[in-house]
C-alpha cells in the first residue's frame, strides 16, 4: 500500500488488521476524516459545537444512531473496523487504544466525521512544498493551543493545532492553497512564534507526531480535528471514542470536489 | 470625490485637471491599472515581458497603435488625460511629471494596462484588515527588490514591490484574499525581513508612499506594476511614459469579476 492505493483497498487492509499505522501520505487525493463517536445524548450539543467551531470541526457527515455505516463517505465503510487505530475515552480520560471497535460498539452511538488537514497535504506536495512529517515517515505533530473553543453544552476546551514547518515563500503558497479548502480546516490559524498561541515547547507535541523546524523555517499551525477529543477530555464525558491521532478514516471523496 | 465616486466621474475630474493626486482609496470596488506607454517598436518585446513576469505585469489591455482609447476598460477612456499624473522618461531617465499627455502624444505610441494591487485594497478593508497608507492618507510605499525579472528584448531589471504592514493573523487573511486575484498581482511575494529581498531601509521607499511598520507587525510585499518603469529605466529606452507612482487609471471593471 502507498500513496496510490485506493481508499477501498486501504480500508480493507485496516479492517483485516493488516495495517494499524498512521494515514499521512496514503491514498493521495482522497479526503481523510477525523472521527468522534458519542452516545446519542451528546449528539445535539456536539453537532452545535461543530457549527460554532467550523475551523477545527468542519462536519462532513453524521451517522444514524447505532449505525456503523457512513454511505456518503464511502459505500462499504464500517466505522468499527476501517480506521487503523482508535482511542477510547472513559470519564474524559484515555482508557485504551484499539484496532477495532467490535466489542465496544453500542446501539446508542452516533459517529461524526470531520474534515482533516491530511487531505490537503498531497496538494502541498503537488505544488512542490515539502511536508516534513511525511518526509520523516510519520504524522503531523499536534499541539493544544491556548485558544478557547466556542462552548456548546459540555463541550468547550482549547483548540488543537497541527504544525508544518515552512520558509516564507512556502508559507505564502501553503496559505494560498489551503485557504481554498475550508472543509478540511482551510487557512492556518497562526505561524511564527509558538508562544503566541500558548505552545511552550515546539519540539514536544501533545499528540504524537514528528516536530522538526529547521533554520530559515517557522512553524505554521492549522486548526486540527483532534479538537473534539480535547473537548471530550475537558468535559469528562463518560464514554467517547475517537480515531487515534494520525490514524484517520480514508473516504472515497476526491479532495478536488472540496475546492471552494 | 471619495471611495464611492464612480470611475467615470473620477476620470472626468482628472481630465479637467481638477484632481492630480494619488488614487489609493478612491472608487472602491473598481480595478485600478498601471500604464506603460511605449513606441510601437518596443511593443512586442514588452508584451512578451508581461507574459514572462505575470506576477508583476498582469496584462489587462493593449491599445491600438496611436490610439488613446481603451474600450475594454471603460467606454470613454482617454489615456492622454484620465490619469491624475504621468511620468515621462527619456533615455531611461526621469524627464518630467505631467498632468496630461496632450502635447506628448505621438502616432506610434502603444498603451499597456496592467492590474494594480490598489484594486484589492477595498477587499482587505471589507474583511476588517487595516490598510496603513490609506489610514495615513497616502499611497502604498514601493521598493525595488533584488529579484531579477525574466528578460525580454531590452526589458529586464528588478522586481518592484508594494508594501503593506500586517500582524500574523492579518497576513494569513491578506494572503487568503489576494491569492484569489492573480490579475491584480495575486498573493504576496514575500513577508518578514526586507533584507531577504534586498531592501536596505524599510522606511525609505524608492517610489513615494507612506511606510510605517509598527510593533507586532511585519512588512508584506506584493509584486508591483511599477516594475515596467524600473525595466524602462534599466533598458534606457529613448522615450516612454508611465502613470506617476500611485496615480493610476481607474477603470469601469468591478474587482469581483476578477475572482479566480
What does this molecule look like?
With 260 residues, chain A is α+β, with helices and mostly antiparallel strands. The first copy, chain A, folds into 2 domains: 7-117 and 235-258, 3-Layer(aba) Sandwich (PSTPO5379-like), CATH 3.40.1640.10; 126-223, PSTPO5379-like fold. The first copy, chain A, has 6 helices and 11 strands. In chain A, the strands form 2 sheets. In chain A, strands 1, 2, 3, 4, 5, 10 and 11 form a 7-stranded antiparallel beta sheet that branches. Chain A has a 4-stranded antiparallel beta sheet with strand order 6-7-9-8. In chain A, strand 3 (86-90) and strand 4 (93-98) form a beta hairpin. The first copy, chain A, is globular, with a radius of gyration of 17 Å. In chain A, 51% of the residues are buried. The model of chain A has no long low-confidence stretch (mean pLDDT 94). The A-B interface holds A 168-169, 172-173, 175-176, 179, 187-192, 196 and B 168-169, 172-173, 175-176, 179, 187-192, 196.
Q: What is the structure about, briefly put?
A:
Two copies of one chain form a homodimer. Chain A is of the alpha+beta class.
Quick tags:
alpha+beta; PSTPO5379-like fold; PSTPO5379-like; 2 domains; homodimer; 260 residues; globular; four-stranded antiparallel β-sheet
Helix/strand layout:
The structure is a homodimer of 260-residue chains.
Chain A: H1 7-15, E1 30-39, H2 43-52, E2 59-62, E3 86-90, E4 93-98, E5 109-115, H3 118-126, H4 132-135, E6 142-148, E7 158-166, H5 168-178, E8 190-191, E9 218-223, H6 227-235, E10 239-243, E11 249-254
Antiparallel strand pairs in A: 1-5, 1-10, 1-11, 2-5, 3-4, 3-10, 6-7, 7-9, 8-9
